[in-house]
Design a protein that fits this description.
The structure is a single chain. The chain is an all-beta fold and 229 residues long. It folds into 2 domains: 53-135, Immunoglobulin-like (Sandwich); 144-226, Immunoglobulin-like (Sandwich), CATH 2.60.40.10. The protein has strands spanning 24-31, 37-44, 53-55, 60-63, 68-76, 81-85, 90-93, 96-97, 101-107, 116-124, 127-135, 144-146, 150-151, 158-166, 171-175, 180-182, 186-187, 191-197, 206-213, 220-226. It starts with 23 loop residues before the first strand and ends with a strand.
Length: 229
């Protein structure tokens, strides 16, 4: 700081680091013209030793949407530690412990399609560790639905259709008989699929199957029984 100055000037006080654990004080005396003077007492806090706190988790962790859990040992030189979560869907157990205690964090299943976030906080003395938890959204089960699963056309050349619904990007369809053909071999959800038969000149009914597939969803089948002539 300057040791002199003009009226109205603002002096700056700078202190060195206090390496002792005890607080220390100093006095600044400012003298003016004649006998005028003012004193200021400066008290600097003692050095606070950082607490030791260690967990076996990085600063971020990903959970599966179906529900997940993770655990870690908590090591500290403090008498105890506490743990907390910022979200009700992420529970911690136990909420406190001592050096070497196991801490677990458990996430409930995420029923929404979007991911969600929470923070796991472990604190001991003046030390704190935070882990950002990201839980993935729910994974929708692949599925296919058809507006009809059977068709019984007459023996003459016929046409019949049905809607294909799926939560997959696309679907494929195939017939297992040459006399039953399809208007399309693939499409997207909500498409109308038409099946065509040639005339059955036999006196007996005949059968065919249309198989619809979409991603890893369970296939769906349309069973076709065409009457004989």
């Amino acid at each position: 700081m300057p040791t002199s100055g003009a009226s109205g000037a603002t002096p700056t006080v700078k202190v060195t680091a206090n390496t002792s654990t005890a607080a220390r004080t100093g006095v600044i005396t400012v003298r003016g013209e004649g006998n005028a003077q003012a004193t200021f007492t400066v008290t600097q806090a003692g050095f606070v030793q950082p607490a030791f706190l260690e967990i076996d988790l990085p600063s971020s962790w990903n959970f599966k949407g179906i529900g997940d859990a993770v655990g870690t040992f908590v090591r500290t030189d403090q008498a105890s530690w506490t743990a907390s979560s910022t979200a009700s869907w992420l529970t911690v157990y136990p909420s406190s412990g001592v050096n070497g205690t196991w801490l677990a964090a458990k996430a409930e299943a995420n029923t929404r399609s979007s991911p969600r976030f929470a923070t796991l906080t472990v604190q001991a003395g003046n030390a704190k560790r935070e882990v950002l938890i990201t839980q993935a959204g729910a994974v929708e089960t692949p599925s296919i639905n058809l507006s009809s699963y059977s068709w019984e056309p007459a023996s003459t050349s016929s046409a019949g259709g049905f809607y294909v619904y799926t939560n997959q990007p696309s679907w494929t369809a195939a017939s297992n008989q040459a006399w039953l053909t399809l208007s399309a071999s693939s499409g997207s959800s909500g498409a109308w699929l038409v099946a065509y038969t040639t005339a059955n000149t036999s006196g007996s009914p005949r059968t065919a199957t249309v198989t619809v597939r979409a991603g890893s969803a369970e296939p769906r089948y349309v069973h076709v029984t065409q009457a004989g002539r």
